[in-house]
Structures are given as structure tokens and as C-alpha cells.
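Comment thread on ticket #2218

A.B. wrote:
> Attaching the input chain for the structure job we discussed in standup.
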Amino acid sequence: MPKCTRQAALVTSIVDGDTIDVLINGQTYRVRYIGIDTPERDEYFYNPATAFNQNLVFNKTVTLVKDVSETDTFDRLLRYIIVGDTFVNYELVRQGYAQAARYPPDIACSSFFESAEFAAQTTDSGMWMPTPTPFVPPAGGGGGGNCDPSYPSVCIPSSTS
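C.D. wrote:
> Ran it. Output below, let me know if you need it in another format.
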């Protein structure tokens, strides 16, 4: 296993649930969390994932830990994030705000994240929480031609039947 390098940084901005901007030695860098994926702007659970990430790291000094790759195709640093005693990548998955995602060669923690995702799914945490399915009544009432139009979601026979 490669030697993991660590570096301190100040989180200056939250881009979304798995991307932040940090300040290192007076220079700003965009950082993409390794091994996880959170919902994008137009997807379900984007806002809660982004807010949870913000609560964990915004305006805090974090430790960035490199796996194998330095950057991704968008020139973002690829890192595991630690703040205090919290492994942020793991915590996002464990609480149901992110999914585990393998992006070789940066897979040192993949099994750990996959176990956390399974636990989040099992306990219906975060994005894995069941959502009620709304009832959509059939067009024209509950069925049959003699339904009272005053009750569009069920078929109650009309008093004129």
C-alpha cells in the first residue's frame, strides 16, 4: 500500500456533499472526496447532503489524506477528509448522505465505505429512508360510470343510480 500523505487545510467553501474548497498555504484548491458519491444539484437528497457536509467541515481546519491519485479529470484534489476525530467521507456514507463509490486506483477505504452504506440502508438512514408514495387517483374517479363526481379519488355510487 502506498504511503498516505497528509496535509492540513482550511475549508473555505462547500460546493456540494462531496466537494469543498480549501486554503493551503494561501492558495485555494477544490477537493473531491475519495470513495463516495453524493447527490448532484438536480437529484433527491442534494440539499440535505450538502448541508450535512457543511455542518461537518465548513470554516474548520481539516486533514487531507491522499490515496494514490493526486487529482481527477477536473483538476480537483482527490482526498479523504478528517476533521477532529471524524472521518468525513465515512460519516457521510454512514449517515446516509452519500453512497460508497469505487474509483480505482483510489480504493484503500472502499470496503469500509461499502459496509457503512449497507448499515445506512439497513437502518433506513438519510437517503435510504422510505418515502411515502403519493396516491394518484385514476382519471374520472374510482372506476365505473356511476361514480359520484364529488368524490374524485374513490368510487361512491351516485345517488341518482
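A.B. wrote:
> Thanks. Noting for the ticket: Residues 134-161 form one domain.
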